[in-house]
Hints:
By secondary structure, this protein is an alpha+beta fold. It has helices at about 15-30, 40-50, 95-105, 120-130, 205-210, 215-235; strands at about 10, 50-60, 60-70, 75-85, 110-115, 135-140, 160-165, 180-185, 190-195, 195-200, 235-240, 245-250. It has 2 domains: about 1-110, Gcn5-related N-acetyltransferase (GNAT) (Aminopeptidase); about 115-253, no CATH class. The strands form 2 sheets. Strands 1-2-3-4-5-7-6 form a 7-stranded mixed beta sheet, with helices on both faces. It has a 5-stranded antiparallel beta sheet with strand order 8-9-10-12-11. A hairpin with a 4-residue loop joins strand 11 (about 235-240) and strand 12 (about 245-250). The protein is globular and about 55 Å long.
Amino acid sequence: MSGMSDVVISEVSAMPDVRAVSTLFTDVWGQSDEGAPLHSEVMKSLIHAGGAVTVARSGSRLLGAAVLAPATPAGTAYSLLAAVAPGTSDRGIGRALKLRQREWALAQGITQIRWTFDPLVARNARFNLSVLGATARDYEVAFLGTVEDDPETPEEDRLDVVWDLTAEPAAVELELGGTPIASGPDAAPFVRADGDARWIRVPHDIVALRRTQPAQAEEWRLAVRDQFLDAFGAGLVATGVSRSSWYHLEAPR
C-alpha cells in the first residue's frame, strides 16, 4: 500500500498508549462540553470488556486509531470512533486500520462490524460502502438528539451500516445509470430511477456547505432523509457510492 511502508498497525492496551489515542481523537474531532470525544478510561474499560483499540504508528508518531466495542447479536462488534492524524488522510491509513480491525475481529470469532455515520458526508460514505463493502438498510433519524433537546444544535441523522467480515473487501467502481426523477436543493438531479434500483445524490462537500450555506445544508438533510426512508421502506439496501457522490440502492442480494 502506497505510503504505508513505515507504518505499523497493532492493538494497544497500556494506559499511555490509550491516552495518546484519546488525545488524537480530541485533536481531530475537538472537545464538546462533555470533554474528549472518547476518554482513555472508557477505552481501557472497553478493552477489558473484550473490545480493541487499534493504532497506526510511524516510529513514535501516532498516525491513526480506531476503537471497537463488543456488541449484539453474538459475533458482532461496534465501531465507536476512528481518526487519522491531520495531514495523513491520503496515505491509506484509514483503510489499513479497518482491515486490521477485520483481522482482529475474525480471530475473535466476530463476523460483522456495525457503526453509524453521517449520510451527507460523501467521502465517508464512499469509503464505507464502496471501499470496505459495508451495506446500509437502516436510517436513524435525529440519532444524536432532536432540536427540542437543544434548539441551538441542528438534528443529525445517521446511516446504520453493517460490514460482513466473511466477504473479502473489494473496492467497487459504480457507473451512474437510470433516469432523473427529482431535483435536489441545488436544482440539479438528485434522485434517479434505475429499474427496481435507485440512486440518491448527496453534496460533494457537506462540511463546506454547512459553513457557507447552512440553510441549504439543512434542506439537503431533510431531502436525503425522506429519500432514504422511502427507499429502505421499499426494501432496498445501500450498497455503494459513486465518485460523483451518488448512493446506489438495490434489492438485497
